């Protein structure tokens, strides 16, 4: 199938026509191309998420590779990196290949498995990083996300190991001794509510340690879901020194604050926790400055029984894939070059996903997101494609509708609906 996007604006530029032929972007469309009136629509390189929880294998009641892939496509994504905290954990070549194969079968986005750093995410012994790298899944990002690789010697070894194949360790930065029993951000609100706090320094201390380790080893570190103003300063200094560190921020940390915990609605419980207005402002500025490289969703679907319960029993995590671009648009406005870089180009580079994060020039793979920036919509959890319902944005009126998504020239979303 060939397509002709008529009158489309590429990253906000003057309207033009964009043709998709045989999976690549082309100067000219054949006569039988399906014409899409793209007047008022903006084309972006397909979005890439470096941090998605797909829950398969193990918690298919919360999400599967297929339902998560569909949610991703509807959110404008053409590739997602799936986190290793599944059951069994993605700590062997067998499990990462299983996830990779399920992604291919679903065929809605490229699913790039992330491998665990340590066996069972237990933080005791390195997993078989090399075997996962050499597998069909071609793993390049390793993470114990959900848990911090707290042991500095293991962290050093992991950084040394992946250096051989230009891999990267994605750290969930949380000093566990400082967050025992933590329920929310430690600050004025936690004091008022009487909930045990998760202090900012628990994140900042690990990032500070890890940038020094990465510098010492000369290896690549990626910091997951940065949430505090202090973390931004540590990263700023490390980058200025030339440390090979990249970092992500989630849409929810760019918008929401710890005040939301006051209603004790566990939909706002997340790890790291929602922080203060001051942190939100610092994270926004860091994304603009490039101190934070990418927006990553940390899409964390949870089954109803794991979320709709007392705050202290609820699992941390929020849905993100179907709302990420609208949230970023609502925070930053139509800064298309920024959005393309932080949500597609830079994440594709970090994950080593060639073919994604392109410049939409002729001859490049047709991984494209088509957005209507003027369309507003109200988030209805029941309408989301994710198998779970734990969106913190229910009832919010957001700008930006994903009209179409193309994966190597195949439409996965058309007219705002999933094609399969
Ligand atoms: N980000 C979250 O709040 N949850 C993550 C794991 C984690 O980081 O705790 C999940 O897998 O649910």
Automatic annotation (TrEMBL):
<dbReference type="InterPro" id="IPR024403">
    <property type="entry name" value="DHOase_cat"/>
</dbReference>
<keyword id="KW-0862">Zinc</keyword>
<feature type="binding site">
    <location>
        <position position="298"/>
    </location>
    <ligand>
        <name>Zn(2+) 1</name>
    </ligand>
</feature>
<feature type="active site">
    <location>
        <position position="298"/>
    </location>
</feature>
<feature type="domain" description="Dihydroorotase catalytic">
    <location>
        <begin position="42"/>
        <end position="229"/>
    </location>
</feature>
<dbReference type="InterPro" id="IPR032466">
    <property type="entry name" value="Metal_Hydrolase"/>
</dbReference>
<feature type="binding site">
    <location>
        <position position="225"/>
    </location>
    <ligand>
        <name>Zn(2+) 2</name>
    </ligand>
</feature>
<comment type="similarity">
    <text>Belongs to the metallo-dependent hydrolases superfamily. DHOase family. Class I DHOase subfamily.</text>
</comment>
<dbReference type="GO" id="GO:0005737">
    <property type="term" value="C:cytoplasm"/>
</dbReference>
<keyword id="KW-0378">Hydrolase</keyword>
<feature type="binding site">
    <location>
        <position position="145"/>
    </location>
    <ligand>
        <name>Zn(2+) 1</name>
    </ligand>
</feature>
<feature type="binding site">
    <location>
        <position position="271"/>
    </location>
    <ligand>
        <name>substrate</name>
    </ligand>
</feature>
<feature type="binding site">
    <location>
        <position position="85"/>
    </location>
    <ligand>
        <name>substrate</name>
    </ligand>
</feature>
<dbReference type="GO" id="GO:0004038">
    <property type="term" value="F:allantoinase activity"/>
</dbReference>
<protein>
    <recommendedName>
        <fullName>Dihydroorotase</fullName>
        <ecNumber>3.5.2.3</ecNumber>
    </recommendedName>
</protein>
<dbReference type="GO" id="GO:0004151">
    <property type="term" value="F:dihydroorotase activity"/>
</dbReference>
<feature type="binding site">
    <location>
        <position position="53"/>
    </location>
    <ligand>
        <name>Zn(2+) 1</name>
    </ligand>
</feature>
<dbReference type="InterPro" id="IPR002195">
    <property type="entry name" value="Dihydroorotase_CS"/>
</dbReference>
<feature type="binding site">
    <location>
        <begin position="53"/>
        <end position="55"/>
    </location>
    <ligand>
        <name>substrate</name>
    </ligand>
</feature>
<dbReference type="InterPro" id="IPR011059">
    <property type="entry name" value="Metal-dep_hydrolase_composite"/>
</dbReference>
<dbReference type="GO" id="GO:0008270">
    <property type="term" value="F:zinc ion binding"/>
</dbReference>
<feature type="binding site">
    <location>
        <begin position="316"/>
        <end position="317"/>
    </location>
    <ligand>
        <name>substrate</name>
    </ligand>
</feature>
<comment type="function">
    <text>Catalyzes the reversible cyclization of carbamoyl aspartate to dihydroorotate.</text>
</comment>
<dbReference type="InterPro" id="IPR050138">
    <property type="entry name" value="DHOase/Allantoinase_Hydrolase"/>
</dbReference>
<keyword id="KW-0665">Pyrimidine biosynthesis</keyword>
<dbReference type="InterPro" id="IPR004722">
    <property type="entry name" value="DHOase"/>
</dbReference>
<keyword id="KW-0479">Metal-binding</keyword>
<dbReference type="Pfam" id="PF12890">
    <property type="entry name" value="DHOase"/>
</dbReference>
<comment type="pathway">
    <text>Pyrimidine metabolism; UMP biosynthesis via de novo pathway; (S)-dihydroorotate from bicarbonate: step 3/3.</text>
</comment>
<feature type="binding site">
    <location>
        <position position="302"/>
    </location>
    <ligand>
        <name>substrate</name>
    </ligand>
</feature>
<feature type="binding site">
    <location>
        <position position="51"/>
    </location>
    <ligand>
        <name>Zn(2+) 1</name>
    </ligand>
</feature>
<dbReference type="GO" id="GO:0044205">
    <property type="term" value="P:'de novo' UMP biosynthetic process"/>
</dbReference>
<feature type="binding site">
    <location>
        <position position="172"/>
    </location>
    <ligand>
        <name>Zn(2+) 2</name>
    </ligand>
</feature>
<feature type="binding site">
    <location>
        <position position="145"/>
    </location>
    <ligand>
        <name>Zn(2+) 2</name>
    </ligand>
</feature>
<dbReference type="GO" id="GO:0006145">
    <property type="term" value="P:purine nucleobase catabolic process"/>
</dbReference>
């Amino acid at each position: 199938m060939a397509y002709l996007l008529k009158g489309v604006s590429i990253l906000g530029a003057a309207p033009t026509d964009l043709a998709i032929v045989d999976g690549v972007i082309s100067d000219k469309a054949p006569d039988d191309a399906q014409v899409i009136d793209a007047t008022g629509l903006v084309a972006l390189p397909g979005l890439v998420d470096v941090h998605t929880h797909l829950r398969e294998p193990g918690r298919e009641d919360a999400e599967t590779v297929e339902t998560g892939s569909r949610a991703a496509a509807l959110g404008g994504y053409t590739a997602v990196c799936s986190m290793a905290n599944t059951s069994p954990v993605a700590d062997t070549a067998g499990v990462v290949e299983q996830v990779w194969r399920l992604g291919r079968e679903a065929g809605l986005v490229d699913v790039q498995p992330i491998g665990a750093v340590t066996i069972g995410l237990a933080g005791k012994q390195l997993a078989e990083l090399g075997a996962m790298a050499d597998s069909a899944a071609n793993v390049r990002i390793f993470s114990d996300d959900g848990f911090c690789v707290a042991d500095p010697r293991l962290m050093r070894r992991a950084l040394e190991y992946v250096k051989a194949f230009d891999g990267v360790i994605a750290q969930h930065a949380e000093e566990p001794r400082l967050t025992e029993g933590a329920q929310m951000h430690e600050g004025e609100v936690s004091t008022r509510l009487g909930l045990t706090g998760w202090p900012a320094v628990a994140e900042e201390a690990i990032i500070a340690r890890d940038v020094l380790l990465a510098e010492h080893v000369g290896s690549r570190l990626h910091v997951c879901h940065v949430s505090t103003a202090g973390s931004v300063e540590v990263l700023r200094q490390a980058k200025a020194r030339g440390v090979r560190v990249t970092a992500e921020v989630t849409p929810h940390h760019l918008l929401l604050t710890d005040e939301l915990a006051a209603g004790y609605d566990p939909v706002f419980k997340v790890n790291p926790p929602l922080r203060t207005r001051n942190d939100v402002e610092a994270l926004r500025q860091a994304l603009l400055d490039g101190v934070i490289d990418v927006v990553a969703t940390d899409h964390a679907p949870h089954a109803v029984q794991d979320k709709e319960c007392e705050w202290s029993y609820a699992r941390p995590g929020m849905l993100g894939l179907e709302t990420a671009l609208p949230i970023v648009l609502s925070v930053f406005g139509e800064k298309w070059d920024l959005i393309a870089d932080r949500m597609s180009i830079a994440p594709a580079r970090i994950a080593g996903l060639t073919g994604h994060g392109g410049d939409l020039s002729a001859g490049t793979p047709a991984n494209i997101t088509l957005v209507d920036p003027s369309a507003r919509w109200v988030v209805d959890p029941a309408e989301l494609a994710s198998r779970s319902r734990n969106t913190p944005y229910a009832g919010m009126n957001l700008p930006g509708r994903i009209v179409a998504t193309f994966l190597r020239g195949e439409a996965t979303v058309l007219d705002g609906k999933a094609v399969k």
